[in-house]
Amino acid sequence: MKQYGKYLFLLPGLLVLTLFMIIPIAGTILSTFFDAGSFTLAGYMQYLQDPYFLNILWVTLRTSLLTTLICILLAFPAAYYISKCRPRMKMILLLLSIFPLLTSPVVRSFSWMVILGKGGIIDNTMALFGSDTSISILYTPTAILIGLVHLFLPLSIITLVGVMENIGDDVVEAAKSLGASASTTFWHILLPLSVPGLMTGSILVFVGSFTAYTTPALLGGRESVISTFLYQNAVTLNDWQLASVVATIMIVLSFVVIGIMNWLAGKVAVRGGNIRG
Amino acid sequence: MSHVSLQNVAVAYQKTNILENFNLDIPEGELVSLLGPSGCGKTTTLRLVAGFLQSHQGSIQVGGKDYTTVPVNKRNFGFVFQNYALFPHMSIFDNIAFGLRQRKVSKKDTYTKVMEMLELVGLQHFENRFPKELSGGQKQRVAIARALVINPDLLLFDEPLSNLDANLRVSMRSEIRRIQQESGIAAIYVSHDQEECFSISDRVAIMNKGVIEQLDHPAAIYHRPRTSFVASFIGFKNFLRFDRRSENGQKPIFYKGDSTFAVSYEKDTGSMTGVIRPDDIRIKPAGPPVTENELSGTIITAIFLGRSYQYEVKTEHGSFTANQEMTIPFQSGDSVVLDMPPHKWVLVEESEVPSYAG
Amino acid sequence: MANRWLGFVTLLVFTFLLGPLVIMLVSSFGEAGVLQFPPENWSLKWYANIFQGSMFMTAFQTSILVSFAGNMLALLVGLPAAYAMSRFQFKGKAFLQTLFISPVLIPGIVLGFALLRYIIVTFQIPVYTALFIGHTIIMLPFIVRVISSNLDNFDFSIEEAAVSLGASRVGAFFRIVLPNIKSGIIAGVLIAFLESFNNVDISVFMTGPGVSTLPIQMLTYVENYFDPTIAALSVLLMALTAVLMFVIERLVGISYFTKK
Ligand SMILES: Nc1ncnc2c1ncn2[C@@H]1O[C@H](COP(=O)(O)OP(=O)(O)OP(=O)(O)O)[C@@H](O)[C@H]1O
Ligand SMILES: [Mg+2]
Q1: Residue B199: its H or E element
Q2: Domain topology for A50-276
Q3: Domains of chain C
Q4: C169/B99 touch (CB, cutoff 8 Å), yes or no
Q5: pLDDT band at A273, cuts 50/70/90?
Q6: Mean pLDDT of A202-227
Q7: ipTM of predicted complex
């Protein structure tokens, strides 16, 4: 087959991606650097000094970091337990983790509104104990955090189960045969070997929660995160310049995080040797 | 006139030439195998003939027709793949019928031909099974039947038996030979199993780095390798480069230092390199002074091979390997004399000898 | 001992994951106009309410149509690309592989905004068409990824065998390759469908007169009302999700999700 023939197969896809992804994204990014035809960084200067915007950025970063951390802490033991289960039980637990993953984020966030909202279950329970002021954590950063953990926990669990299955029983058995206790095996064998997968999972969770829209939009109320801020500026306020600046910042930050984590994961993987030859 | 003829073909992958000025002729009905070390271009040659690769020069003719630019699906050659390549989603019947259906053969004829083929390869009543329900050997029979049923102008085999166990390989190869001879279709057979090639082929081509170094009948290759590469590839472990030669009537004598060797040959190529198999050297305890075709040395290692012992013997002209059956073996350090009779020597042309062959 | 502790944490994790969904499921059958748990009286009226009026029905139709059409286009351009990337060696392959996956790497909200700005405003493409294009883009990576992983396990000498027996390249693809990666393709299509059907980030920018997908319609509804209609609708969507999940599991096995 001629060399060019091969590219023919890719052409339709490339055309679609170029027209409807590369051009719009590149256009958005480039537009932030030009004002009336001349190069400028004024847009960035302006917003990176605006305390309101910086606060939103900070809240978003903090929430994503916390989400990532909580997801790891909860997912790791759960994934370890699942990977040790008998096949049937493992299958059931995996399906139970996959189900939320495939369920609409609108549905999942809404289910928390039912619990956290005014007249929701928590509110009602408090009333039962005689608390007369109806309190609600809906529309607070905490609500966003809960929603995001709920959104990304299944992904963390499933990624980690995959990693732990890949480690394989032979390594664990080897450790045991050498006299390692269950906890030694966990801390010295399983945990270090899981690190590359843990990192991959964390990238997904961090970037995912940093850019998530639906959950903060439903559970955050007036409390903005960067994605809802972008939406407000683009649609409600029609400030495209600002929206584009925010969009660019989101892309850059996402890619920087992906880059750093990939680099770190690469380092760890090289040092630890790759699992499974 | 030969049935298959490759003239000056050439193939390159990413600008690296794999085959260059490559020539091969095969008479009607003959099975030629390509034998050579890994990476020497056997598969490449076969895929070129099949049409999966294009030659950027020269020509390929089969049965007097030029095939150089004919696409694969218009060639009517049967290809048998190393991993069988059966269609997993089709029954055995449909697998074998596939080629006939491409040729728009009538339903009735298709049925008859497929059934004939199943019988030929000994798989009657298997037509409704699926590939995953067959053993390796049975799959390979289906693959052969599938290639054969289209009544191809040429059969191509790429290591068809390498995924089978040793016993099955032996019985399958005689079956392939039987089927090929019965059908009378010329075939090219790739393998890197020497014994398999020798037992199955009319002629064997020994390849090295994209070049056929020798194309000959199996026995001729075995006894009379033409180059040092071929010699080492088929088990001549001992090489001796002579210093000079003298014609002494009908008996040419070769000299290496103080040693003299009488060497008999059919055709004088003027070559100065002699090779001899480990099996053809006789080892005697040191004693009387050495004469013509003898060399004294010391045993370095002795390895038990089962039927015989293999000795590594150090001599003034380098180390020699010799096999010998004995009840009381030599020990390392023993002084011995190597006896290398004139008719066991073969004179070869120098060619590049791959390092593993030593 | 350690196992007990792990089991307990796992139990908590799954309670956290599934509890809210279960609570919503139960509350959706309440009679009261606000969500109660457990409800005092039971009723199916909120389920009936979904089908009252055209609000959700139209949005549902739009969602189905956009996801389906986008899926077909993504398959049409994604299948040959996935095939070429598994089958051939060529320059720039790694880059192209990343490019075809990149729509999932770009934040959805950013892609949505960029599409609004350039596709709808600059290129003047109608909202409905833009919605379809946007969904095609987000489905492409899922289609390409699932099909690629199927093709990577496919032994292409089978295709060559077909060609050597006289099939044309195109014929061999449709009669030999396609039937063997069929389940992968269906799984890819279903996963992409769910991704598109649930999408908010792109669709939220692409609403117009009479054009809105179901998730966006639900968001709008929640902003204004807090009755159990959305809970009832959510339950129906969860049922749909569960059915599709089992189909995907049948087709490619659970390992599709765990082995990335
Ligand atoms: N698709 C390819 N791209 C680049 N180089 C290739 C390709 N296929 C084969 N080669 C190179 O061509 C040379 C010949 O390969 P070929 O497959 O013909 O060897 P072979 O004799 O069949 O070896 P083996 O006994 O291992 O099957 C090798 O050096 C190989 O690395
Ligand atoms: Mg080969």
Answers
A1: helix B194-200
A2: MetI-like fold (1.10.3720)
A3: 1-43 (no CATH), 53-258 (1.10.3720.10)
A4: no
A5: very low
A6: 90
A7: 0.90
Please report the pLDDT score of residue A134 as a whole number. 59
Give the CA-trace dihedral at C98, C100, C106, C110, to 10 degrees.
150
pLDDT over 90 (residue A208): yes
pLDDT at B245: 85
User: pTM of the predicted model, to two decimals?
Assistant: 0.84
pLDDT at A131: 64
For residue C179, the chain B residue with the least C-alpha distance is: B89
| Most confident by average pLDDT, A157-166, B79-88, C250-259 | B79-88
- CB of B52 shorter than 6 A to ligand 1: no
Contacts by residues A76-79 (CB-CB < 8 Å, ≥ 24 positions apart):
A76/A160, A76/A194, A76/A198, A77/C5, A77/C6, A77/C9, A77/C10, A77/C13, A78/A157, A78/C6, A78/C9, A78/C10, A78/C13, A78/C14, A79/A156, A79/A157, A79/A160, A79/A161, A79/A163, A79/A164
Q: Which of residues 134-173 of B touch C (CB under 8 A)?
A: 143, 146-147, 150
Residue with the smallest CA separation from ligand 1 atom 22 is B43
Domains and CATH numbers, chain B: 2-230 (3.40.50.300), 238-348 (2.40.50.140)
pLDDT of residue A274: 42
B35 lines ligand 1 (CB under 6 A): no
> Is B178 in the C-facing interface, judged by CB distances under 8 Å?
no
- Does residue C193 carry a pLDDT above 90? yes
Smallest CA–CA separation between C170 and chain B, in Å? 11
